[in-house]
């Protein structure tokens, strides 16, 4: 069974199958570090699963707002016209926590916090925590990952 592991310390995402590594990619997690509280801007730790795989029919660099494609394709010109946007591109893997009281329900719910694995502009650095809580990936890397996983795939996020 496929499993995603995200190391906050290493800023790495690994896809495994029965303990065998199938792929490893550099990511960018939260600038604010690890944490589960609503409004913290932190990346939540613990056991999760993919609740939904969004955007499979969209082109690379498709722009999403509220988990819906806007019809825009990311470009430097588009970025210049929207300098404060937190760019969610290409695909979304929406995460749901598995641990009530830690990352599910109440004031620490990963799904209600809209924690995703998603694409980001290629100009954004990987291997450096800079996100608002989500796990950012290069668009080409995310396409590879997205093609291998499905809703229900376990995701473990750890320090």
Q: Can you walk me through this structure?
A:
The protein is mainly β. The chain has a single domain, classed as L,D-transpeptidase catalytic domain-like (Beta Barrel). It is built from two helices and ten strands; from the N terminus they run E-E-E-E-E-E-H-E-E-E-H-E. Strands 1, 2, 3, 4, 5, 6, 7, 8, 9 and 10 form a ten-stranded mixed beta sheet that branches. The longest helix has 8 residues. The mean pLDDT is 97.
Q: Indicate the percent of residues in helices.
A: under 10%
Strand count: 10
CATH topology: L,D-transpeptidase catalytic domain-like
Instruction: Give the CATH architecture.
Output: Beta Barrel
Give the low-confidence spans. Answer: none
Going by helix content, strand content and strand pairing, the class is mainly beta
Question: Between the first and last Cα atoms, what is the distance in angstroms?
Answer: 23 Å
The CATH superfamily name is L,D-transpeptidase catalytic domain-like
> Quick one: overall form?
globular
Secondary-structure element series: EEEEEEHEEEHE
The CATH class name reads Mainly Beta
Main β-sheet description: 10 strands, mixed
Radius of gyration: 15 Å
Mind sketching the topology for me?
Elements: E1 2-7, E2 12-17, E3 20-26, E4 46-54, E5 62-65, E6 68-73, H1 76-81, E7 88-97, E8 116-119, E9 135-137, H2 139-146, E10 154-158
Parallel strand pairs: 1-10, 8-9
Antiparallel strand pairs: 1-2, 2-3, 4-7, 4-10, 5-6, 5-7, 7-8
Summarize this structure as a short list of keywords or feature phrases:
cell wall biogenesis/degradation, single chain, 2 helices, globular, mainly beta, ten-stranded mixed beta sheet, L,D-transpeptidase catalytic domain, L,D-transpeptidase catalytic domain-like, 159 residues, 9% helix, LD-transpeptidase
